[in-house]
């Protein structure tokens, strides 16, 4: 199954794309929460590289790990994602497509989820929607 | 944590509440869970011990305690119990299973959703077990107080 979230941006595709790979911008929206504080935002922006983003919420750290599979600036970014993984088999694929639209862009995010996690779909969709709203707020 | 869960009815002790003799020494108390060797002590059923094991195991994790706290506010879907991106789906599932195994949480199907509900009875049982120790400490403190008072009288 797939979660698909789409949004229009006034900013051009290059800006929308770069935000995901620039630690200074990413820390403002990627897995950031209103109540939390991003303690770490390490990004190695190359295929085979990855990210580690840690959001401190109360006295618990939410750790998010990623591994980049496709980096085609500015149109396609694909990474494997794992939230707070204890094991090594909790990776799911996230694909981000950015297309040009008038002066701005359209971003479409797809998160591939195993059917057995269908119960978590609403919350996960809400999470990505909030992240993408945060991205919009972080862009000029 | 907002408020503490209250038992919906009276505490079920099923006649297995231990009565602790204040004169029993600590080493014997530690053995009480696994043997009935004192006439003033009622037997603990193996069932109760198992339930205490799973209850305390369920409570021993901060993520699970947070889930229970959320459920004190009412029924929640499984998805709502897991903070998005804060834990893996497998991890969240494992936590909910442990809570179910302890009887602290029950699930029901409502349309396409699975709704979870808090069941406080195991907590009432754990509270009753803990209360006994409170009485021991109280009686110990009483004896300490008595001892100190007696000593004060003796010294001129």
The helix fraction of chain A, in percent, is 10-25%
Q: SSE order of chain B in H/E notation?
A: HHHEHHEEH
Spatial strand order of the main sheet of chain B: 1-3-2
What is the arithmetic mean of pLDDT of chain B?
Answer: 75
Low-pLDDT regions of chain A? none
Q: Count the helices of chain A. How many?
A: 3
Q: Approximately how much beta-strand content do the residues of chain B carry?
A: 5-15%
Shape call of chain B: elongated
Describe the main β-sheet of chain A briefly: 7 strands, antiparallel
Written overview of the protein:
The complex is a heterodimer of chains A (140) and B (156). Chain A has helices at 13-19, 23-26, 121-138; strands at residues 2-9, 37-43, 50-57, 60-72, 76-83, 92-101, 104-112. In chain A, strand 2 (37-43) and strand 3 (50-57) form a beta hairpin. Chain A has 140 residues and is an alpha+beta fold. In chain A, strands 1-7-6-5-4-3-2 form a seven-stranded antiparallel β-sheet. Chain B has six helices and three strands, in the order H-H-H-E-H-H-E-E-H. Chain B has helices at residues 26-31, 46-59, 62-71, 78-81, 89-101, 121-154, and strands at 76-77, 105-110, 113-118. In chain B, strands 1-3-2 form a three-stranded antiparallel β-sheet. In chain B, strand 2 and strand 3 form a beta hairpin. In chain B, helix 2 (46-59) runs antiparallel to helix 5 (89-101). The longest helix of chain B has 34 residues, at 121-154. The chains are: A alpha+beta (140), B mainly alpha (156). At the A-B interface, strand 4 and helix 3 of A face helix 4 and helix 5 of B.
